[in-house]
Amino acid sequence: MKIMDKITYSNSGVNIEAGEQTVNLIKPLVKQTFNENVLSHIGGFGGLYNIDLSRWNKPVLVSSVDGVGTKIMVAEKAGIYDTVGQDLVNHCVNDIFVQGAIPQYFMDYIGLGRLIPETVEKIISGLTKACRENEIALIGGEMAEMPGVYKIDDFDLVGMIVGMVEKERIITGSKISEHDVIIGFPSTGLHTNGYSLARRIFFDILKMDLSDRISTDSKTIGEMLLAVHRSYYPLLIKYVEKDIINGMAHITGGGLPGNIKRIMPDGLSAVIRTKTWEIPELFQFMQNKADIDNEEVYRAFNMGIGFVTIVDATNVDAILRETDGMVIGEIIKDSSDSRVKMIYA
Q1: What is the pLDDT of residue 190?
Q2: Nearest to 329 by CA among 254, 247, 253, 217
Q3: How far apart are CA 154 and CA 74, in angstroms?
Q4: What residues contact 321, with CB distance under 8 A and at least 6 apart?
Q5: Could you give the residue range(s) of every CATH 3.30.1330.10 domain in the chain?
Q6: pLDDT band for position 2 (50/70/90)?
Q7: Which of 51, 165, 193, 263 is the most exposed place for a label (fewest CB within 10 A)?
Q8: Which of 165, 140, 197, 136 is nearest to 62 (CA)?
Q9: Cβ(13)–Cβ(148) under 8 Å?
Q10: Which regions of the chain carry the CATH code 3.90.650.10?
Q11: Pairing mode, if any, of strands 245-250 and 305-311?
Q12: pLDDT tens digits, 290-344
C-alpha cells in the first residue's frame, strides 16, 4: 500500500513563508506613505488613523471601493505589474475627489493563484508611488493566496479609500445652473475602463500583439494600454478650496454621458460637443477598425477626456490659463430626462 505524502498547507498551494517574505519586501515601501496620523504598524490586525480635529470643523468621511478591471489581464500579458497599482490609487482618489474630499488613507486587497514576492512587491511599489503623489497613507491591506479560485498566475487587485470633506463644502452638483461651462481634462488613455472591448479589438479581432503599433509614430499597443490612470486631485484641489467648482465627474465606465448625468440637477442638461477636442489616436483606431458607432464608443471609452468640472462662466479663464483643461460644453435648461446631450457633428 502506497503511503501518501504528508499533507501540508504548502503542498495544498499556500506558501506561508512566501507571504512573510513579501511583507518584509513591502514594509519599506509602505512606510514611505505614512504621516503623523498613522498610529498602526504594518502587519497589525487593523489600520489606525487619527483624525486631526484641529484641521476640521464638521468633517464628513467619504469612502469608495474599486478595482482596475480586466486591465490586469494586459498587465499579466506584458509582465508589468507596477502600473496597475498606480491605476488603482488614482482611480479611487478621483472617485472621492468629485465630492470635494481630501484623500486620507488607502487599503488594498491582492488575491492571487500563487504568491510570488517579487511580483507583489512591484504591485505595491505602484500603490505606494501613487499614494505619495496624492499625499495619502497606505495603512493596510490583504494578500490572499487562493489556488482553485484564481489560476496559478492570475491575480486581482482592489482598493478602498477614505477621504474627508467639510460638511458645508460637499460638492454634489446641486449648484450647477444654466449657462455654466463644462471644462474637460485630458485622459492618459483608457484609464481603467473599456478593457474588455479593447482586448477584443486588438487581440481577438485584429490579432495584434503588445509590441505592435497602430501607426509609425505611435507607442506600442502595450504602452498605450498600460498608460497610468491620471489623478486630477493635485491639479484641481486649489479650485475646490477656492469654492469655484459647481460640479465634477470622473469619466469611468459609461463614458461622458453615463458619468456627467450622475451630477446633473433636475431641469438641466449638459451639452457635450465632441469636436471641441482632438480624439486621441488610440480611440480613433479602435472605433474605425471595429466600426463602433458614436453612441456606443462614447459609452465604452472616455475618448480622451478623463475628468470634467462644471463652473460659472466667470471662472473659466483662470482655470484654462493654469491647467490643460478645455471647454467642451455648457449647461442648458431642459425638461427631458436625458441629462446629457452629445453633439457629434
Answers
A1: 98
A2: 247
A3: 11
A4: none
A5: 10-169
A6: low
A7: 51
A8: 165
A9: yes
A10: 181-343
A11: antiparallel
A12: 999 999 999 999 999 999 999 999 999 999 999 999 999 999 999 888 899 999 9
The answer to pTM > 0.90 is yes
Using DSSP, state whether 106 is helix, strand or coil. Answer: strand
Residue 142 phi, psi (nearest 5): -145, 135
Question: What pLDDT, on a 0 to 100 scale, did the predictor assign at position 345?
Answer: 83
Instruction: Give CATH superfamily name and number for 10-169.
Output: PurM-like, N-terminal domain (3.30.1330.10)
Length of the chain in residues, anyone? 345
d(CA 122, CA 151): 19
With beta carbons less than 8 A apart as the criterion, state whether 320 and 171 touch: no
CA 308 to chain centroid, in Å, comes to 14
Q: What is the pLDDT of residue 13?
A: 66
Alpha helices in the chain (DSSP H): 16-31, 71-78, 82-97, 117-133, 195-199, 221-225, 233-241, 255-260, 281-290, 294-300, 316-322
Query: How far is it, in rounded angstroms, from Cα 100 to Cα 170?
Result: 6
The rounded distance, in Å, linking the Cα atoms of 196 and 194 is 6
How many DSSP H helices and E strands does the chain contain?
Answer: 11, 10
DSSP, collapsed to helix, strand or coil, labels residue 139 as strand
- Per residue in 21-80, pLDDT tens? 888 888 899 999 999 999 988 878 899 999 988 999 999 999 999 999 999 999 999 999
On the 0-12 / 13-18 / 19+ scale of CB atoms within 10 A, 152 is exposed
Query: Under a CB-based contact definition with an 8 Å cutoff, are residues 47 and 104 in contact?
Result: no
Residue where the block lists cell 484654462? 320
CATH of domain 181-343: 3.90.650.10
pLDDT of residue 243: 95
Please give the grid coordinates belonging to residue 175.
449648484
- What whole-number distance in Å separates Cα of residue 106 and Cα of residue 64? 10
Distance from C-alpha of 122 to C-alpha of 131, rounded to nearest angstrom: 14
